[in-house]
Each structure stands twice: as structure tokens, then as C-alpha cells.
Task: inverse folding
């Protein structure tokens, strides 16, 4: 009877032991802006490509169990609902993409768009939605706009400003490390 009981307990534990680390011990969400944060582009959006190191960074975070999301300002009149807007953004990127590595949409667990133009960042709407989606696991936001960083922080979403294209006198600032992400979420 003891052996049967022990086997029964082991059978209950096996799915947990076999589950990926992310499912057992969920990491926080990391939300990103797209332009000038993950990709660079010409003023006409004809020469879009990953910012050097961005793809590897995203893949590393994903491998560590972080859930990734994007908060994208997209015109409300272009597409009805998130799914259609996402397809339009994918096509837009595809049409102007000039990088040997494809843009890997599969790395992202969520892509959020404002339902109305007045809700575009730096309006707090998308940041509040990110906080709600992350729930108790928490999240951080990384983007290049100072106004967006301030709005995210005010909405309760820890934020980090990246600077890949510094203005004169400004220093470059890269992404947060995995440890820094966890630290920022835990402080919030």
C-alpha cells in the first residue's frame, strides 16, 4: 500500500516536474515599444531592421521564462480589434523589413493596441492594460520616449528608457538585464 501511495504522489508531481520553468515559476512580463526600441527604421519606414542585439535579447528573456509583450501606437481607424491590427502591423513590417533575420512575432505573448487614437501612448491606457495583463507576476516597460516612461511609471508600470540613438550630449542606454527586471518588479 505504501508503494502504491508513493507512486500515486509521484504521478501527481510528474506534470509539474516536466513543465517548463516558466509554467512552474512565472517570471514577470516585459513590455516593449517597437520603433527605436526593438527596431530601427528610416523616416519613411522603408529600411526597418532589428536594433543590434535586440533579437538575441528577446530570445534570451524568453528562454529564461519571461513573458514578452509590445504596446504599439497604431491608428484606430486602421483595423478593427487587436487581431486585425496585428495582421496590419505584421504586413507593414514585412513590406519595409531589411534585416536578414525575420522579425520573430512568436517571441511575443501579447501585442496591445489602443482602441482609440486618444489612447495612444503616452496616454496611460496601454500601460494600465499591461499592468492588468501581468497581474500579480508584475511587469516592466522598456521604450525610448521620456514621455512614455513617465506615463508608464505614473500608471504603476516600472519603466526603463533605452537610448540607442542618442542626441548630442546624451549617452546610449541599453536594455535591462534579467536581474534588473526582477529587481524593478520586486521594488514596485
Result:
Amino acid at each position: 500500500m505504501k508503494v502504491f501511495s508513493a507512486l500515486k504522489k509521484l504521478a501527481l508531481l510528474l506534470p509539474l516536474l516536466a513543465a517548463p520553468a516558466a509554467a512552474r515559476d512565472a517570471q514577470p512580463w516585459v513590455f516593449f515599444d517597437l520603433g527605436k526600441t526593438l527596431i530601427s527604421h528610416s523616416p519613411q519606414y522603408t529600411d526597418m531592421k532589428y536594433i543590434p542585439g535586440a533579437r538575441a535579447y528577446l530570445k534570451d528573456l524568453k528562454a529564461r521564462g519571461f513573458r514578452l509583450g509590445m504596446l504599439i501606437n497604431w491608428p484606430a481607424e486602421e483595423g478593427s480589434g487587436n487581431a486585425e491590427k496585428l495582421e496590419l502591423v505584421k504586413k507593414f513590417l514585412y513590406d519595409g523589413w531589411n534585416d536578414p533575420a525575420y522579425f520573430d512575432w512568436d517571441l511575443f505573448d501579447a501585442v496591445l493596441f489602443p482602441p482609440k487614437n486618444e489612447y495612444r501612448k503616452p496616454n496611460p491606457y496601454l500601460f494600465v492594460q499591461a499592468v492588468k495583463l501581468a497581474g500579480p507576476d508584475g511587469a516592466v516597460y522598456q521604450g525610448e520616449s521620456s514621455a512614455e516612461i513617465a506615463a508608464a511609471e505614473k500608471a504603476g508600470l516600472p519603466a526603463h528608457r533605452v537610448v540607442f540613438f542618442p542626441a548630442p550630449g546624451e549617452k546610449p542606454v541599453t536594455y535591462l538585464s534579467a536581474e534588473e527586471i526582477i529587481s524593478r518588479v520586486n521594488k514596485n
About this structure: The chain has seven helices and seven strands. Strands lie at 29-32, 39-40, 49-50, 67-71, 110-112, 139-143, 159-161. Residues 29 and 139 are 4 Å apart (CA to CA).
